[in-house]
What does this fold into?
Amino acid sequence: MKQKICKKEVIMLAIVILIQTAVFIVAGMNKSYMHMDEAFSLGLANYDTIKIQNNEDFYNTWHNGEYYKDYLVVNEDEKWDFSPVYINQKNDVHPPLYYLLLRIAMNFHIDKFSIWSGVVVNIIIYVFITIFTYLIMRKLLEGKNKYKEKSAVFALVSSLLVSSINSAIYIRMYALSTLNVLITTYLHFKLLDSKESDKKLLFCIGLSALIGSLTHYYYLFYLAMLFIMFTFRYLKNKEYKEWAKYFGTFAIAGVLSILIFPYSIKHMFFEYRGKGAIDNISHIARFVRCIGHYIIKINWYTFHNLLFAIILAILAIYIYKKCQKIKVVEEKSKYIKYLIFPSLFYFLLVAISSPWIELRYITPICGIVFMVVMFYLEEVLNNILTEKALNVVFTIVFIVMLIMPFALHIKVQEMYIDKKEIVQKFESEFNVPTLYMARSKGVRFLDDILLFSKIDESYVAEGIDCTEENIQSIMKGKDLSKGMIVFINYKEKNSEMVEIIRKALNLEQATHIKQMNACNIYYLK
It folds into this structure.
């Protein structure tokens, strides 16, 4: 059955999009800091090397804020130079499409740093995420009473989850990857409805696969299971010609993807991420722990700590209906398994592959998990409650779900509200000579590059022992009348090093200012 979008649906979606956009803008306005990977995004999209730390003059030299800001902004003479987008990704571990979009957005802020370059890109992407969430939910609920209105409500709530807000303001490729997953899913739903292969539909499926593969490699986990399921369906029904067209679509998309970005083969199988994923397969205990941690993250950030309660409710109602010999569902959805199994496959492979247990890696399926759980809750309640009672139940569930982040202090991680004050201080009273004792291996300097871009004089000391003689040599000729700032990594003996620096420079007091992601900040005066 063809689904046409009517005027009423356009109005509903417009309202949903306006509400979510307003929420995302407020979140963006409150975004006070960046994760190191967000700084990476900006640098990879515009700088002439992957890391600013790779510069020969980076360590053991005094620099001003412009030196660091150059990594985060597009300068006037770089405006139309898109080569870093491709070259940097070749030398990194991700495909280039997202960085191309980010680079285009950064061209609107020449010579100026702005988080809005990345946030606006994601807000625009989320407009389409919500549209496709609505279309998928509309397919799942098709034929039910007021299914269009229900789908619009589900799409709205899905966009207001903490995991969604987090993704919208996180300057990385995960929002785009989410959209890729949803588009691919919806197009396969359309293919499921099609009696014979539609060339335009297959073209769109191939294009979505190409775009997805050029956005993030984890997308291929989801696509692989969809492909397996549809292949099994075609072969089971002996639709060999249709399968050949389907297979050919992905073969062409795969060849084009490799031709556009041949380095993907190296990234997936020979770089540290690919090797790490293969090594993790043999560590069963770690794999099981990762699954548990990721379930907890979905519960916390997508269901706001209500996931297990909702699942228990679904199981309890299911058992009750079985005992009462009530039909569990009136009509099974032919679409739902094409959400469940690809998402489960993606989830398990990400648990194996991801280098760290982070919400961002499972963000592309968080909305789908939400849809599946809500769909089953609606299914089990559907024929034991009146329509009015059903609407009341879902209204209560959604209101509680949207209130829970405030009640439980579930934070949007990428807002970094706790770092707002330190940024303001570096813009005013803490613009003094700054020393970063970067002696530990794996220093996460990009976590704090935003602060260094606001300082007139800073020095990153690498391979230098913290002795009074060395400190005096580094700080020779610097005006310390207003004090100085010192960054020290966690792995170092912070207290001892601060005391050595204080004595070396005849400063009277040392105050701990802030604990950052990878270091402590001290003010000495």
